[in-house]
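Researcher: Next sequence.
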Amino acid sequence: MKRLATLGLVFCFTAALSFAAGKEGGEAGGGSLQIWKWANFVVLAGGLGYLIGRNAGPFFAARAVKIRKDIIEAGDLRQEAKARAAEVERRLASLEAEIAALRAASRQEEQAETGRFGRHTAAEIAKTQAHAEQEIAAAGKAARMELKRYSAELAVGLAEQKIRARMTPDTQDELVRGFVRGLK
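Model: Next structure:
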């Protein structure tokens, strides 16, 4: 503000000197106009100086505060970005170990699954084999029973043929008499 007032005084002094020089030069009409031009300039410069001095200080102070605030925020963002980058680097470094662990776990799970599948297949084969053996045994038993029945039928038929061949009317009468005696 003091600088502006000093500047205004310098302009006024310069205008006064110019005005005095104009009077001494004897220019009657042109000198008067020149003085008014200088006076108008001084008033305009003084008004602009006053307005700039009055508003420029708070404006530049607010602008400086905003710039400082933005610089601080940028620093915070930079620190946050560095922290994120460090975290990403750390995770990338541990990613290889995680992948190796996942592969190892996958291999173990595959081996366990193969073992379970093998055991399950062996159990199913054993069940099927036991079932087949039972069916074979049942079929053999049924075949033996059928063979015995057939043999018995053949034996009965053969015995009947032999009996019929030996059976005479006299033998029949003797059998009936023996049966009747047994009833009495």
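Model: The first helix runs from residue 2 to 25. The radius of gyration is 66 Å.
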